[in-house]
Amino acid sequence: MSQSRRGGSQMAIIGAGSVGSGIAFACLMRSVVSELLINDFNAEVCDGQVLDLQDAAFVSNTKVRVGTPKECGQADIIVITAGARQRPGESRDELVQRNQDILKSVLDGMQPIKPTAILMLVANPVNVLTCMAQKFSGLPPRQVIGTGTYLDSIRFRVAMKERLRVSESSVHAYVVGDHGDKQVAVWSSATVGGKPLLSFEELHGLDQDEVSHQVAHKAYKIIDLKGATSFGIAAVVSELALCITLNKLSVIPLSTYCERFDACLSFPVSLGTNGVENIAYPEMNEKELALVQASAEATRKVCSAF
Ligand SMILES: NC(=O)C1=CN([C@@H]2O[C@H](COP(=O)(O)OP(=O)(O)OC[C@H]3O[C@@H](n4cnc5c(N)ncnc54)[C@H](O)[C@@H]3O)[C@@H](O)[C@H]2O)C=CC1
Ligand SMILES: CC(=O)C(=O)O
Known about the structure:
This protein is of the alpha/beta class. Helix content is 40%, strand content 22%. Strands 3-2-1-4-5-6 form a 6-stranded parallel beta sheet, with helices on both faces. Strand 11 and strand 12 (275-279) form a beta hairpin. Helix 1 crosses helix 9, helix 4 (96-110) runs parallel beside helix 5 (126-136) and helix 6 crosses helix 7.
């Protein structure tokens, strides 16, 4: 059994824009690690974010400072948010060329990366970038993860929570596959209190496709309204960092290589200090499985180029 490593652990965040600074703030408030390193190739923005975060650190047990790429490569958890964000109406997939180039330069700048580090991809398209980082980081695949459909699964659970009047943590439901337009909400095996989700009276007559579409398009709505999403993903990453530092082995949908589909996709995994321990594929009906297979095919095609 591995030791958890919260005491003395370091986390690096590459990219100090809306998402990187949100993640830093959430991790600071929850004292997830003992030291946070922040890096951005825009040195002024980076210095500004760090000075601001240092003002907030009086309520935290975490110290925060600017880190060089090489220092960040030696952190226990390395979170990559560096990358272009979607413009209103733009899909995550359309970011691929710009963000592949940025990821390549970020990985090169951090080498050699600490052999026990957990590398966490946040920048989009997250499945493709996770696949790329698994190939080029030099780390074992189990230590290279993407935030995948964790945020989408939370959005799905919140949509159900509001209808069923139960807490989101009581809704055992997953969005799997793509963190993007091809994501699949697995209705068929979702449960609440051990009872199939779809058997609840409150959900009779519910248009499942409509709810799935709203969940998948929530990011577009937020981007239309405020230009970027940041708080949801910040909470997600702080929770993942806690899972890693405390070796919680919580089952969370994340981007990882899925042998069953021969592609980097997001499926529930148990996550601990050593990264991904096991993958659990939820039961899916024919329609759900076909949609996952289509998204695996699309991801494989993009990833075969590198
Ligand atoms: N996985 C998820 O659930 C989510 C992913 N995202 C993704 O996160 C990424 C970042 O989004 P925002 O923070 O809103 O964008 P942003 O534009 O606010 O920040 C990006 C930052 O990356 C920096 N950067 C670019 N290249 C760099 C390099 N080579 N080294 C260091 N820093 C570099 C930029 O200077 C900028 O400060 C986007 O790709 C976005 O789509 C956003 C929200 C949720
Ligand atoms: C932008 C993005 O990927 C999200 O909020 O889901």
